[in-house]
Amino acid sequence: MMDTQNNWRVRTKTIDELLRDVKDRVESSPEIVLQASEKLLEFFVQLLNDQNFKIVLNTLNILNMILGMPE
Fold first, then answer.
1. Which of 41-60 are b and which e, b meaning 16 or more Cβ less than 10 Å from the residue's Cβ?
2. 58 closest CA partner among 2, 27, 19
3. CA dist 15 to 4, 34, 44, 70, 71, Å?
4. What is the mean pLDDT of residues 31-42?
5. Which residues, other chains included, contact 58 with Cβ-Cβ below 8 Å and sequence gap of 6+?
6. More confident residue, 1 or 12
7. Mean pLDDT to the nearest integer, 40-58
């Protein structure tokens, strides 16, 4: 989700879609999320440095969903 043009609208739309997709996947196929959780966490932690508050907030929501899953 690197945006070299600093287009916050694209980044915001993308994180919104990711939030929906992760939520759907956690509900429908949690085993897939658990298998990929390490890579997902590595990716999403990088987004916590974004300058846009909504991106950081949605990233925190995604991380909370992943970390809150039962093993």
1. eeebeebeebebeebeebbe
2. 19
3. 16, 20, 10, 24, 25
4. 96
5. 15, 16, 18, 19
6. 12
7. 96
The pTM of this model reads 0.86
Residues shown for the chain: 71
d(CA 2, CA 23): 22
Cα torsion angle, 70, 37, 52, 11, sign: negative
Mean pLDDT of 31-51: 96
Helical segments of the chain, H only? 8-28, 30-35, 37-46, 53-67
Q: Is the dihedral of CA 41, 44, 49, 55 positive or negative?
A: negative
The neighbour count for residue 70, using CB atoms within 10 Å, is 5
pLDDT of residue 5: 62
Q: What is the dihedral of CA 49, 55, 61, 65, to 10 degrees?
A: -80
